[in-house]
Design brief:
It contains 19 helices and 18 strands. It has helices at residues 7-19, 22-35, 55-67, 87-108, 112-123, 133-139, 143-155, 188-195, 200-203, 268-272, 275-295, 339-355, 372-381, 387-410, 447-462, 468-476, 481-528, 540-543, 561-564; strands at 73-75, 125-132, 158-163, 168-173, 176-187, 211-219, 222-227, 235-238, 246-250, 299-302, 312-313, 320-321, 328-331, 415-418, 425-428, 439-441, 569-570, 574-575. It is of the alpha+beta class and 599 residues long.
Length: 599
């Protein structure tokens, strides 16, 4: 029996959790300033041209694009599951997982793994909420909203929401996620949509656009929702779920460091070292000086009379300046951008790349005559800084899917259909082992990488280093190798039947052409021979057995069908039969007995 908790105790515990994240929240503000190009610590003068360095933003977006170049691949590896796991069950689970994840992204209008990758890189943390659509349908009283949820349930029984780590405050212990708090400002109308009828009493009479502090608390037993300044919760129940319905993970950092250093996102080095700030300051200085010097050049007037006023007549377009012989007027020659500024900016850019990603990884050309092997090597090795993010994002996505499946089991939703009516998957969780291992893999791959992986798989199989099944799993991310093998054999069998049909058609056309040639030759012979009457002196009984004469003008043509009876069907009495086929031309020759006669 879980320990009974009071609402006030949960409120106090929540305040302590949020207060412990002050250093992390301050770090998030600095990182967002760099990513969103906010002006920080810039001189505020009229002549200053503030220019923020885009390096931090460009590197982050480039990393996100690399991580989201491919959809997550779902596999139930043979070596991580029991031998008794039926292949058909594993295959259906893989397909269903892919369909549910894709459908949830389409419902949110943003691919879920894109938001997860941006969250991991920008904040160093991933928080994915798991929502059961069937439970929402049960609690909904609005008919229009209920119909909308039913349409969603036909596509996926679970939807996922990638939460912003700025509003999430997870608590970890030795066994993983022990508690989770969401604290953010929300409009009243959003609170009503989030909670439903439970919020009507406390929110009655308030403006729909008013902003309130929204708190949501989860632990292993309780789920509590309340608003700031309220003494009573909107919702406080024992959720009776096997786990907290949120997949949360820290990407880089972790428990090796003190609380304020646990989070070390992708831009941590750039922001903490002030490299981004120095790049922005140097750019601001260079552009300000260049504009001031270029738009308002300093003129040097050489004359013996230094007190003589310099007058320009602007009545003429372009202006006219009259000076004496020997006098001169010219701009002062000086560099608009000092060379030392350029060198400092190059150093800042170099340190920025060392702290994030090299530009060649994102497709920057090397220039000159760099060989393709060098370009490919730099592109591949430049992705090494993203390996921890790729693995942690894959792990978080896997946890979100597996936790969602466990929640469906707990709530009694064991049989459901995923996808459309024609191509959907009927999944029965009662026959899926509870300890099944399902993995999501988010590859940092481009099309040329897939080709390279395929070549590696071919080589290791050819040299007997790996089986076909293991090579497909390791290099091609094909979980159920037997399904792929059956599909390959099916395609080969269809090609074999198509080749047999093609040979049969070719033989028929050849035979028809030969028959036409024979008919033409017989017709020509008939025209060359003069018509002959019946032999003289033949008995009358023999006269009736002679074939009738062809009418005038019909010589050389095929006789009517009734005249060909008894002659083998071919003029000249040739038997009507197909010529003997040479060996190897029979489409059914060499087939097993069960396939002969089916072509």
């Amino acid at each position: 029996m879980p320990e009974k908790k009071e609402f006030k105790d949960i409120q106090s515990y929540t305040d302590e959790i949020i207060a412990g994240y002050a250093e992390r929240d301050a770090l998030y503000i600095d990182i967002e300033d760099a990513y969103l190009l906010n002006e920080v610590d810039m001189p505020q003068k009229d002549w200053v041209k503030i220019s923020m360095s885009p390096d931090a933003r460009n590197k982050t977006l480039g990393a996100v694009r690399l991580l989201t170049a491919a959809e997550p691949k779902w596999t139930a590896p043979r070596d991580k599951n029991k031998d008794t796991l039926e292949e058909e069950i594993a295959s259906d689970l893989e397909k269903a997982a892919a369909m549910m994840w894709t459908a949830a992204g389409r419902i949110k209008k943003t691919p879920l793994h894109y938001s997860a990758a941006l969250s991991a890189l920008l904040y160093g943390e991933i928080d994915i909420a798991i929502i059961s659509v069937n439970e929402l349908i049960k609690a909904e009283t609005n008919p229009a909203k209920k119909n909308r949820l039913k349409k969603i349930a036909k596509k996926t029984p679970i939807i996922w929401e990638v939460l912003s780590p700025k509003v999430c405050y997870p608590v970890y212990d030795t066994f993983g996620l022990a508690a989770h708090v969401v604290y953010r400002e929300m409009k009243i109308i959003d609170v009503e949509n989030r909670i439903g009828p439970a919020a009507v009493d406390q929110l009655q009479g308030k403006n729909k656009t008013d902003v309130v502090d929204f708190y949501e608390y989860w632990d292993e037993t309780y789920h509590v929702i309340w608003l700031g300044g309220q003494s009573e919760p909107l919702l406080m129940d024992e959720h009776k779920l096997p786990m907290i319905p949120i997949a949360s993970a820290i990407v880089e950092g972790g428990d090796l460091f003190e609380d304020e250093y646990k989070w070390q996102p992708f831009l941590y080095t750039t922001v903490k070292s002030k490299t981004h700030a120095r790049s922005s300051l140097i750019m601001t200085l260079m552009y300000s000086n260049a504009f001031a010097t270029g738009a308002n050049p300093v003129l040097v007037y050489e004359t013996d009379d230094i007190d003589k006023p310099l007058t320009v007549d602007y009545d003429t377009p372009g202006g006219v300046l009259k000076i004496k012989r020997g006098e001169s007027l010219a701009p002062l020659k000086r560099e608009a951008i000092d060379q030392s500024m350029k060198e400092l900016y190059q150093i800042a850019q170099q340190k920025s790349e060392e702290s994030t990603l090299y530009s060649q990884t994102l497709g920057e050309p090397l220039g000159g005559n760099a060989p393709y092997s060098m370009v490919a090597l730099l592109s591949q090795s430049g992705r090494l800084p993203l390996i921890p993010y790729q693995r942690m994002i894959s792990s978080a996505i896997t946890d979100a899917m597996m936790n969602g499946i466990d929640i469906l089991r707990t709530q009694g939703h064991r049989k459901f259909k995923v996808g459309t009516q024609e191509t959907g998957i009927d999944l029965d969780l009662s026959i899926v082992p509870e300890d099944i291992e399902l993995n999501a893999t988010l590859d940092i791959e481009m099309p040329q990488d897939e080709f390279q992986q395929a070549r590696i798989a071919m080589e290791v199989v050819k040299n007997g280093l790996l089986s076909i099944e293991r090579a497909r799993e390791r290099y091609l991310n094909i979980g159920q190798s037997d399904n792929e093998t059956r599909q390959i054999y099916k395609e080969k069998y269809v090609d074999f039947l198509a080749n047999l049909e093609f040979q049969r058609k070719a033989q028929e056309a050849q035979m028809q052409q030969q028959m036409q040639q024979q008919q033409m030759m017989q017709g020509q012979q008939g025209q060359m021979m003069p018509p002959q009457g019946p032999p003289q002196g033949m008995p009358p009984e023999m006269m009736g057995q002679m074939p009738p004469q062809m009418p005038p003008g019909m010589e050389g043509q095929m006789p009517p069908d009734e005249m060909m009876e008894g002659m083998g069907g071919i003029p000249g009495g040739m038997p009507q039969q197909m010529p003997e086929q040479p060996p190897g031309m029979n489409p059914e020759e060499g087939l097993p007995p069960e396939l002969q006669g089916g072509i």
